[in-house]
Write a structure and sequence with these properties.
Elements (H helix, E strand, L loop, with lengths): L8 E5 L5 H11 L3 E6 L2 H10 L3 E5 L5 H14 L5 E4 L15 H28 L3 E6 L14 H18 L5 E7 L2 E2 L2 H7 L8 E2 L1 H12 L9 E4 L7
Parallel strand pairs: 1-2, 1-4, 2-3, 4-5, 5-6, 6-9, 7-8
Helix pairs in contact: 1-7, 3-4, 4-5
């Protein structure tokens, strides 16, 4: 089915119960048609039922051939996307001597290589019309490494530098590329209860507030584009 409503199209990867779903809600609330990419078919189906403007495209983005086919499906069914929000993430939290080195390759594929593939698939139509945005969500591991992040931080650092390369290439063509460093524990059940059960409310960043900032970033005026954006709770030590 082809989109005939002329709604603007946004693609969001990594649509989980936290930040990803909040980003989808934020864009659909503003009339955008959102293509949701994630592995969990049931979660995507539930969001489709909740949000009439959301469309599910189940996909494991580590499978690059499958990812390219999904990008083609989105373009055929909904039209050319004007915004891509790459929120999907794969992480390993072990010292380098304890983790399987293959984890580095898998993390790199989800965090970085998939961004390259999607940019190649979706940015040409943005550049052709002279507008659009690619927003990438990251965290502090993109800027520094710590022992338990040895197989994760390198992939996020590479992701940020790839985004910067895309920004320098696509910016003059009218396409805004930006990197959002979320220096925080995000308020989700899987971060609050198992890891931070005793922390106060102010310790956490709210997914809806993060989504607000991403929506704003994707709509910045061309005369005041940002690339590096840091988001953190007011009480965060940094």
């Amino acid at each position: 089915m082809t989109n005939t409503s002329h709604q603007k199209v946004c693609v969001v990867t990594g649509v989980g119960d936290g930040t990803g779903a909040s980003i989808v809600r934020r864009f659909t609330a503003e009339g955008w048609q959102v293509a949701m990419i994630a592995r969990d078919k049931q979660r995507l189906a539930a969001l489709e039922q909740e949000l009439p403007n959301a469309r599910a495209f189940p996909c494991d983005i580590a499978n690059l051939e499958e990812l390219l086919e999904v990008c083609s499906q989105i373009q055929r069914q909904l039209g050319a996307p004007e915004i891509l929000v790459h929120n999907a993430v794969r992480a390993t939290f072990k010292p380098f001597m304890e983790a399987d080195p293959e984890e580095l390759e898998q993390n790199f594929r989800v965090n970085t290589t998939s961004l390259l593939y999607m940019a190649r698939a979706l940015s040409p139509s943005m550049a052709e019309q002279g507008s659009g945005a690619i927003i990438v969500t990251g965290n502090t591991s993109a800027h520094r490494g710590v022992p338990n992040y040895a197989l994760f931080a390198p992939t996020k650092a590479a992701q940020r530098i790839l985004a910067q390369s895309l920004a320098r290439d696509l910016g003059p063509k009218g396409v805004h590329v930006a990197y959002v460093t979320i220096d925080a524990a995000i308020d989700t059940p899987w971060t609050r209860v198992p890891f931070n059960p005793d922390e106060p409310e102010d310790f956490f960043s709210k997914p809806a507030a993060i989504a607000d900032e991403i929506f704003h970033l994707a709509h910045q005026h061309k005369s005041t584009w940002s690339f590096d954006i840091d988001l953190r709770p007011f009480g965060e030590q940094w």
